[in-house]
Every structure is written in structure tokens, then in C-alpha cells.
Amino acid sequence: MSKTNQHSGASPLLGKYSKNLGFDAEPDTNVGRVLRLDMPGLPHAPSYWAANAGEEVNTSGELETRQETSVAIIGAGFTGLSCAYHLAKKHGIKATVLEANKVGWGASGRNGGFSMICVGKDEYAETLARLDVEEARQHFHVGLDAVKTVEEIVRDNNIEVDRSESGWINIAHKKSRIADLKETKRLLKEGFGYDTEYIGGDELRRTLINSSEGCGALLYPDGFGLNPLKYARGIARAAIEHGATIHDKSPVLSWTKEGGKHILRTPKGVLVADQVVIATAGYTLDAMNPWLSGRILPAISNIAVTRPLTPAEQQQAGLRTTQMVSDTRKLVFYYRLLPDGRLLFGARGGIRDEGNLNHKAYEWLTQRMVDMFPSLASVKVDYFWRGWVCLSRDKNPHMGTTDDPTVHYSIAYMGNGVSLASHFGRLVAGRIAGKPEEPKITLFKDPLPKFELPAFREASLRAAYVYYGIKDRFL
Ligand SMILES: Cc1cc2nc3c(=O)[nH]c(=O)nc-3n(C[C@H](O)[C@H](O)[C@H](O)COP(=O)(O)OP(=O)(O)OC[C@H]3O[C@@H](n4cnc5c(N)ncnc54)[C@H](O)[C@@H]3O)c2cc1C
């Protein structure tokens, strides 16, 4: 019997839905991938974070008048908030953020909270083959700098983020991937001067994670888990303290340019700006800006969170660390123990956000969790939710300026935006202030590429899921 079928239909976990599960709520992104700009101020996804992040940020509320600003930022996730914070704190530029819903409503307030080193989806060997060694080293170190940016923002502003133990454990989900991990360790050391620790299967099971499939692991010492909504709210409060303005419930419905100024219209107000930053990630509508159209591909990620596990249940499940964990699949599973003993378990979730499909996504995800940790079969799942990550044609994140030198974007973190969005937001701020901090490497020089056939983006993602699914399972 295959591992996946072992519990099919039989798990007592299936059917134990609690009121917090996402598919019972109003779909927040409507059918497909359409953001509801006609319903400003939507509630947060029904996440564990939303239930445990305290008060909303005291913003300037809905934009209801005509206002002027030097920099308008569209989107109050990590990208937009970090940009506003760094513009105000480091460069004395008081930007205005327009957010359709609430601070951290998008991916930033509902992700897994893994702040880790990961720049794009290329293997390190592919990066080394594509770029010269020095550039590849700098490319990798952008990821390390990104983790440090998160550390710095949290520390400088005393943001309480429920931090986990440091470190990310990348687990070989089958024996054939052990060699890949050992090769990665060698490349990281010899190519980029970065030390990781290889942990054999026995030690992994004894000291860190004893799942049904861990064969060995690579431990990256940097990075940590956090409550992403607390973090987003913390950056927002710091940005406001330093002089930025945030208007929530203020979707940008139209964007024109008159006399060299950008005119952003919201349902009740107008913002006139010299420069604009697009920080809307997987929630970007193609119509947002003609240059950006056809350049990004949103995809769903799902998260389930169990009820708190007792220390004995954690031991029985084989969960012996609060460090961040993911596996060597291309279609990765990620999980970690939260400070109150709950298991957060996440994975990719397709390309449609519809009530009935979300129900299936829940069943699929929780079944995979039980496959990996069979003793959790009878444990209730308290929360389930979904959100959009943002992918690009070349599998790399992008920060840049469009064909209009006053329009900047930072986008497509490939599902790893906790640290990258925080860092890239800071880099956009430096660029706007005329004090660029980014290294002069391809990552920041090449524009976000367009998909050759934008109309077929979803179909190509579907095909990629099938291809990678087969690779993950059989190779
Ligand atoms: C379920 C899930 C799990 C994830 N887990 C991780 C993880 O563990 N680690 C990690 O590094 N990354 C993770 N990610 C990815 C990460 O969350 C994102 O890369 C990152 O948060 C993107 O931040 P952002 O600020 O660019 O965009 P977002 O946080 O998505 O914010 C975009 C905002 O723009 C607003 N907006 C859109 N259009 C308009 C408009 N016209 N007018 C005004 N506002 C508008 C939206 O309302 C939204 O709030 C995950 C993502 C998801 C969905």
C-alpha cells in the first residue's frame, strides 16, 4: 500500500472541522484569482495568526479626500510596509501606503512565518552554472542579508513576534535526495562560503524530527519562525511612528498620469504622487499597470494548524524542535511547532480559490500531514486557510523600475517573501532615495520577464505541478 493511501478516507481527523476553517468563510479572493477591489476592508483570512495577533494597527483609515505625497505605495504587506518604514526612518521620506483591505491582509499576514534564506527556485548548481562564481555568491548572500533585515526590523522596534528557535532543517524525503543535500552542503561552503550541517537519518529522528519519511537533513543555522501578522503590524506601527501614512480599506481602482503626476483613485479619495511603488505580490491584478501585465503568476499555498499538542504528543509524533522544517520536494511541504505546541503544516494548493475546491485542499493537506506523522490522525485541526504566493517566469524574485522611471515594483518572491519582501522593500526605499543598497548583479538589473503566452500561465503551472509531482515521487 502506498504511503498516501494508508489513511485514505479512514483518518478520524477528516471531518473534524472547526469553525476556523477557511472554506467556511467568505472567499476572500473570490473565484479564481480575482481580488475583490469592490469590497474594501475584507476581514483577515481565518488564520491562527489573525486569532492571535492582538489589535489592528491604528491607521489613518480609509482615504476620503484628495491628498498629495512624494511616494505612494500600493499594498500593505511586508514589501510595502518595509519600503514605507525604511523610506521614513533612513531617508526622511514620508510615503503614503494604500491598502485595499487591512495591514497584512495579503500573503504577509497569513504565511507560515518562515524567515529563511532562499532566493528564487533555482538549485544552487543552476545558479552557479548561470552566473559567474562571484555573482552567484552575491545572489546567495542577498538571502542571508534578507534574514538579517528581518532580525534588524524586529530588534530595532521591539516587535513581539513569537520567535522560534533559529535554523531551518531541509529534510531528504527519500534516500535518493541525501546525495543532493550533501552536494548542496559542498556548494554552499565552496561556492558561497556558507556553513551548513548535514544530519544523518538516525540523528535526525532521535534529536529533531521523526516523520515517516525523513532520511537525512541539512541544517541551515540562520533564519527563524515568527508570527507574520504580528510582524506586519509591528512594521506598520514603526512606519507610522517615523512619519509614514497608511490608509486601509483604500483599494486603488484607477491609475492615470497627468502633468507628470500619478493619480491613484480609491472609492472615496484621490492620491497624487510623484513616484509609485507596486507592492501587491500575488494579489496584483493584470490591469494594475500595463507594464506589469502578463509578468506574474499567482499560485495558492495552504496551511493547517492543529490544536496544541501536549509535550507527550509532540514526542510521540516525533516533533522535537521548534525549528523551521521543509523537505526536498519541488512541491515542498513545510511545517513547524508553534510556541503553544500546535503543529503548523503547509503546502502548495493549486491555482483556484473556490469553496468546494478549498474543502478538497483541506482534506488533501491534512491527509499528507497524517501520512508524515501518523500519531496525529486523531488530533483536531483548529485552523485552515489559504493565500496567494507570487511566481515569476524565471523563478526569481524581482525588484526594479518599470519603463516609467517613477514606477517601481518588488514582487515574485516564489513563496519565500517573509525575509525577501522585508529586504527588497528596504532596497526599493534606497533606490527611491537615490542611495541604492543592492549589489550590482543580474537579480537587480534584469527586468521582471514577461510570460511568453500570458493567457496560458495557469495551464503551464498546472502542467508544472504534474511534472514536479512525478519527479518528487519517483526520482
Ligand atoms: C499560505 C502562504 C504561506 C507562505 N509561507 C511563507 C513562509 O513561511 N515563508 C516565506 O518566506 N514566505 C511565505 N509565503 C510567501 C510570503 O507570504 C509572500 O511572499 C510575502 O508575504 C509577499 O509580501 P508582499 O508585501 O509583497 O505582498 P502581500 O503580503 O501579498 O500584500 C499585497 C497587498 O496588496 C493589496 N492590494 C492588491 N491590490 C491592491 C490595490 N489595487 N489597491 C490597494 N491594495 C491592493 C492586497 O490587499 C494585499 O494586502 C507564503 C505565502 C502564503 C500565501
TrEMBL record:
As one GO molecular function, the record gives: oxidoreductase activity
| SUPFAM superfamilies assigned | FAD/NAD(P)-binding domain (SSF51905)
Oxidoreductase among the record's keywords? yes
Q: Which Gene3D superfamilies match?
A: D-Amino Acid Oxidase, subunit A, domain 2, FAD/NAD(P)-binding domain
Keywords, ordered alphabetically: Oxidoreductase
Family matches, as InterPro entries:
FAD-dep_OxRdtase, FAD/NAD-bd_sf
Keyword Transcription regulation on entry: no
A GO cellular component term found in this entry reads:
cytoplasm
* The FAD dependent oxidoreductase domain, residue ranges: 71-429
Name listed for the protein in its UniProt record: FAD dependent oxidoreductase domain-containing protein
